[in-house]
Amino acid sequence: MKTAAYAAQSEDSDLGPIEIERRDVQADDVQIAIEYCGVCHSDIHTAHNDWGGTVYPVVPGHEIVGRVVKVGSNVSNFKEGQLVGVGCMVDSCQSCSACDEDLEQYCEKGAVMTYGSDDPISGGRTHGGYSNQIVVDQKFVLNVSEKLYTKAVAPLLCAGITTYSPLRQWNVKKGDKVGVVGLGGLGHMGVKLANAMGAEVVMITTSPEKGADAKRLGASEVLVSKDEDAMKAQAGSFDFILNTVPVAHDLNPYVSLLKRDATMVLVGALNPLPDLNGAGLILGRKRIAGSLIGGIAETQEMLDFCAEHDIVSDVEMIDMKDINTAYKRVMDSDVKYRFVIDMKSL
Ligand code: NAP
Ligand code: ZN
């Protein structure tokens, strides 16, 4: 089946229209007509080949919400017309120790990502959600509540789970003082989710003008990271920090904010990081860790948690043709707080 899509053709070209092929629905497949797709900073890193290894053309998009149009003969959990989601993965080996523990994102054979992976079924590369239709194995399709504002659900599929998973893994609970670094797509979901878990959330930002929004989203306080005196005043006071900064940056000032035995989890920068002062960790038994999206079971848990707590993303809707302007604005930290493409415009 051919479907319309938008692709990057090289690391320095704008995204533009393309036609791609989707496989015919197989026994375990769900065919989805995509209604909305969020724009993650990872889409931009991939289109621009920031991490190396991008194969062009690449169709980004891994925050997908749409309706089922067809299911295979083995599929009983999804029906035509049902509202569903697809996140960052579309397959995994299903037999390694990570997959056995519902941690498909750490699949030892490598999870098949929604875009830019080798496609084990159709050959070639997988293509993401900047398109009209997608065909996905039922194990990687999520159930989306009709209760939530559908347009604003899409970003939960990546920004939501990437922040929910570490907050759960590090057992963030009522009364904890949690810092969220970077008020963008991931950061604004981190603030909402940590707040819903009962934490006292401090927004740590380079953009003082975002302070009022941070408070509206659920932060009780705003800490401007460029203000050295303000940073010193909060040294040693955080139970947990979630760092969403998308580029290499100096971690030492954030480590200083942690209490003894507390952890900062990095979800943003995938590149080498500048020098880390060992004393900052050793004198206080502090920890720096990383975290990658979340497994399928946990993604469903997060979607159910959001339905229960009425949490969605704050979105700016765009037409497909406006994607290149949206990319520029994300790179300028100027998005409130996630762009979502209305796929009707494709
Ligand atoms: P985003 O919307 O661009 O938000 C990032 C925010 O970080 C910006 O709004 C800005 O917030 C802050 N920031 C930007 N440059 C900075 C700098 N040089 N120093 C300090 N702060 C800076 O990006 P996103 O979509 O949330 O994604 C964030 C990162 O997470 C990206 O690298 C993305 O690839 C990655 N990611 C990882 C996973 C995972 O599984 N680990 C999943 C999805 C995305 P302020 O203006 O508030 O400072
Ligand atoms: Zn993403």
UniProtKB/TrEMBL annotation:
Gene3D superfamilies, sorted: Medium-chain alcohol dehydrogenases, catalytic domain (3.90.180.10), NAD(P)-binding Rossmann-like Domain (3.40.50.720)
Record family assignment: Belongs to the zinc-containing alcohol dehydrogenase family.
Top-level division of the source organism's lineage: Bacteria
N-terminal signal peptide: none
Cofactor or coenzyme needed: Zn(2+)
Source organism of the structure: Kangiella japonica
InterPro entries the UniProt entry points to: ADH-like_C, ADH-like_N, ADH_Zn_CS, CAD-like, D-isomer_DH_CS1, ER, GroES-like_sf, NAD(P)-bd_dom_sf
Keyword Zinc attributed: yes
UniProt entry keywords in alphabetical sequence: Metal-binding, Oxidoreductase, Zinc
Pfam families assigned: ADH_N (PF08240), ADH_zinc_N (PF00107)
Name of the molecule in the record: NAD(P)-dependent alcohol dehydrogenase
Every Enoyl reductase (ER) domain range: 8-341
Organism ancestry: Bacteria, Pseudomonadati, Pseudomonadota, Gammaproteobacteria, Kangiellales
